[in-house]
Write a structure and sequence with these properties.
This protein has 844 residues and is mainly alpha-helical. The protein contains 29 helices and no strands. Helix 20 runs parallel beside helix 22 and helix 25 runs antiparallel to helix 26.
């Protein structure tokens, strides 16, 4: 029975209807006269379908389809798909493509394995005629099948069958070679492999060219066959040939011509196959270069140049130059090869020419000069050649510039790092002779290295874009040129074993030249930054050079500190985007601290004296930072550098007590900065922390006379705080006097608690009372609390012996009476505490 009429299903999308007659999927509302007419028409359609179904099966067929046969009847679209109200989960199946691919792949694999097994097992029992018939028949059969499916546009079948045919052809040739069919057994193994490769390549090209005339157009599997064929052919006859590298050199143009012919004769339809053959050209060229490189370490210089034993490199250079130079000679060929391909070819030619020019090694000096000549020639090509050659030469020149620059900078270090890392305490050691280099080139070649660096850098200026960058690089070249040349001359001197004094003086002259040239580009950020980096290298290396002598180290650091200080005071604030001033300020502080480390040794001091001297320099820098700062950035740089240098001074000390003295000096300086500068008041906590650590160290080490260095610092801090309170009525006495009072009273108080009845105890008590009186008189909270706490601590300490001598019942009774007294007078005492709190709040 027909199902067109169903009151529960939408007649349009066949989805279910809700109770109001509205489709739950498409929203069609079946209400009204139109819905009634549609119901009648569908009922009529159901009756017609039943009549057609009841018609006899033997009725004569009509000449054409019934639907649409009536003239003027509208075309009938596809019938709506029947659907139910319930939606079932979609059925997951394999993609339609994966089934034939898997089946065809398995079938091809089984056929090829069967062919191999047949040849290996049953081949020897067959006669010559049978062997020939089987080989030709099976291969022809599958070849015909491949042609047929290609014409029918069955891509997966065609791809598979052409691979099967290619495999069968290879098996046929191998079997024929083994059975000596058609005289193939007289071929060598190498020639037999080459025959297989050539046949596969020809099959891939021929079948691929024919496939371009069919609907299928391309068979991608034949590209793989072509790759295998060209690899077998070139590998057998060229890459592993006994006549290598002649065969390899000949294979490059032959393979290139073959690739071009395949592409041209097929109008570009087999460009993938031509690309595979073209890739083999690159492999052949690399094999040729490798053959030439293998001869470099085993050939003498005479044979290399006179007998041209390195001719493979020359041949590789010439072959690579052809695609790069041909478009220049024949402009019509420029459209054949893209510019980037010609640039790559030109780069390969330049690399192989450079390798040939370097040749086999003949000594450190000769090798350096050879490499220098090659680098200069590359720089010349970079500066003067056309674009196709100039850009690859520029890339090689960049590599050369990096390498030569690294050598120029590292060569002095090879000598300097062999000097002693520390100086002895006795003598100036000005006459120390620098160690001689071992196994390197001649010392004078350092100047050659510097000249090559300059030439390479100058050649690269042509390729900088835009013009502003080229101008900045030119300025940097002018600014750095004299310094680099001076570095080369100085390296020559260092490798000639001069005395330490001479080496330091000449190095200082080089640094002076570099610094002077840096001033010529001070208004240009990029050249100035490059000059400063080179200057920093010279400063660091020069200081390392002077390390064996305290006199030279101290003198060098002092001169550098003065130089940085003068540069800091005279430089413009906007130079290097305001970053130059902080850099110079921090460098001046560092150099001053380094000088402070070395000068005490000349006065027969030791590491403790050096640490105290560095702490003194750091303290001075902290105190002078506000006056010396040219802006907030430079001031912060001075303060941070000084604080870090002061903390580093603790590492120089050999005794904990000396470290405590260093922390006391540094903490006092930080506290003084916080007292004297309103914008640095928060730094007082750093000062308190440093002074607290110093106090802990003194307690642990049981220092018996800390007043020798705590009282002077405390007096200075109290004086600074007093001055601040007089100038700033709103300043809090606890903040500005707290550090000085703490430093003056706490170290002595800790010792006085051990011996309260002593001169120290009396003096501490007197100091506490004086502080208490000043606090009361001036209404200063700092002195008041310091004095009150100090006096209370000593008073309680005096009660210790008395409490120890009293019977236990007296102490317990006293505590009980005290608690009763407090409870009885609690209300009155509460009023007294309120009055005392108001008094303390009124303190400044």
């Amino acid at each position: 029975m027909s199902k067109l009429v169903d009151p529960h299903i939408c007649p349009d999308c066949r989805a279910s209807l809700d109770p109001t007659g509205t489709c739950t999927r498409c929203g069609l509302r079946l209400v009204g006269p139109a819905a009634a007419e549609l119901w009648q028409r569908m009922q009529q359609a159901d009756r017609l379908i039943e009549q057609l179904r009841a018609a006899p099966a033997t009725a004569a067929p009509t000449a054409g389809p019934v639907v649409g046969a009536v003239v003027g009847a509208p075309p009938v679209g596809p019938m709506p798909r029947a659907a139910t109200g319930d939606r079932t989960a979609p059925h997951r199946s394999l993609p339609s493509v994966s089934v034939p691919v898997v089946l065809l792949s398995l079938g091809a694999l089984c056929l090829l394995v069967a062919a191999v097994v047949f040849v290996a097992v049953a081949w020897s029992s067959l006669g010559l005629t049978a062997k020939t018939t089987i080989l030709l028949a099976v291969t022809a059969l599958f070849g015909a099948g491949a042609v047929a499916v290609t014409r029918r546009d069955l891509r997966f079948a065609a791809e598979t069958l052409w691979l099967v045919v290619s495999g069968l052809v290879a098996i046929d040739l191998g079997s024929a070679y083994g059975a000596d069919l058609l005289g193939l057994g007289r071929l060598s193994d190498r020639d037999a492999v080459a025959l297989v490769g050539a046949t596969l390549l020809g099959l891939a090209v021929g079948a691929g060219a024919w496939a371009t005339t069919t609907v299928l157009r391309r068979v991608h599997g034949l590209v793989v066959v072509a790759a295998i064929g060209i690899a077998l052919l070139a590998g057998a006859e060229a890459w592993t040939s006994d006549h290598n590298p002649t065969a390899v050199a000949l294979s490059v143009p032959l393979l290139a011509a073959l690739a071009l012919a395949i592409d041209r004769l097929t109008d570009g339809h087999l460009r993938s196959t031509a690309g595979v053959v073209g890739a083999s050209v690159l492999v052949s060229w690399l094999v040729l270069v490798g053959n030439g490189a293998d001869r470099m370490p085993t050939t003498s210089v005479r044979a290399w140049w006179l007998d041209l034993d390195g001719w493979p490199l020359l041949a590789a250079a010439l072959l690579a130059a052809l695609p790069a130079a041909l478009p220049l000679a024949v402009p019509r060929t420029r459209s054949v090869l893209p510019e980037w391909v010609r640039m790559v070819a030109a780069g390969g030619s330049l690399v192989t020419l450079a390798m040939f020019g370097v040749g086999p090694g003949s000594g450190a000096t000769a090798d350096l000069l050879t490499w220098a000549a090659v680098s200069v020639l590359l720089a010349a090509v970079c500066a003067t050649a056309p674009r196709v050659w100039a850009w690859p030469a520029a890339a090689l020149t960049v590599l050369a510039l990096v390498g030569w620059s690294a050598w120029a900078l590292g060569r002095p270090l090879a000598v300097i790092t062999r000097l002693p890392g520390t100086a002895t305490d006795e003598g100036a050691h000005l006459g120390i002779t620098l160690p001689a280099p071992t196994g390197g080139p001649a010392p004078w070649t350092a100047v050659v290295v510097a000249l090559v660096v300059g030439a390479a850098a100058a050649a690269l200026l042509r390729h900088l874009r835009p013009a502003a960058a080229r101008e900045a690089a030119g300025r940097a070249w002018i600014a750095l040129g004299p310094g680099v040349l001076a570095l080369g001359a100085t390296t020559w001197l260092l490798e000639s074993r001069p005395t330490l004094l001479t080496a330091v003086l000449v190095w200082g002259a080089t640094l002076a030249v570099t610094a002077a040239m840096a001033t010529t580009v001070r208004h240009h950020d990029a050249p100035l930054a490059a000059s400063l980096v080179f200057t920093a290298y010279l400063v660091a290396t020069g200081l390392r050079l002077a390390v064996p002598s305290h006199l030279l180290s101290a003198s060098s650091a002092t001169v550098l500190a003065l130089g940085f200080g003068v540069a800091y005071s005279r430089s413009g604030a906007a130079l290097l985007r305001t970053a130059l001033l902080p850099l110079l300020a921090g460098s001046a502080v560092l150099m001053a601290g380094l000088a402070g480390i070395h000068w005490p040794y000349l006065l027969h001091g030791r590491s403790d004296a050096a640490g105290l001297a560095l702490a003194g320099v750091a303290a001075a820098a902290l105190l002078l930072a506000r006056a010396a700062g040219r802006g907030e950035a430079s001031r912060v740089t001075i303060e941070v550098t000084a604080l870090l240098a002061g903390l580093g001074a603790t590492a120089l000390t050999s005794e904990p007590t000396t470290a405590a003295m260093v922390l006391t000096v540094l903490g006092s300086a930080v506290a003084a900065v916080a007292i004297l500068n309103v914008d640095r008041e928060e730094a007082s906590w750093i000062g308190v922390a440093l002074l607290g650590v110093a106090t802990v160290i003194r307690v642990i080490e049981d220092v018996r006379a800390p007043e020798l260095y705590t009282l002077p610092a405390a007096a200075a801090l109290i004086a600074a705080g007093w001055w601040r309170l007089q100038r700033d009525p709103g300043a809090a006495s606890m903040r500005v006097l707290g550090s000085g009072l703490t430093l003056a009273l706490v170290p002595s108080l800790l010792l006085a608690l051990d011996e309260p009845v002593s001169l120290r105890g009396a003096l501490v008590a007197a100091g506490g009372l004086v502080a208490l009186a000043v606090g009361i008189a001036r209404l200063w909270a700092g002195p008041f609390l310091a004095g009150a706490l100090t006096t209370a601590a000593l008073a309680v300490r005096h009660l210790g012996p008395v409490v120890d001598g009293l019977p236990r019942w007296i102490s317990l009774g006293s505590v009980g009476l005290l608690l009763l007294l407090v409870g009885v007078t609690w209300e009155q005492r509460r009023r007294d505490v309120t009055v005392a709190g108001r008094y303390l709040a009124a303190l400044r």
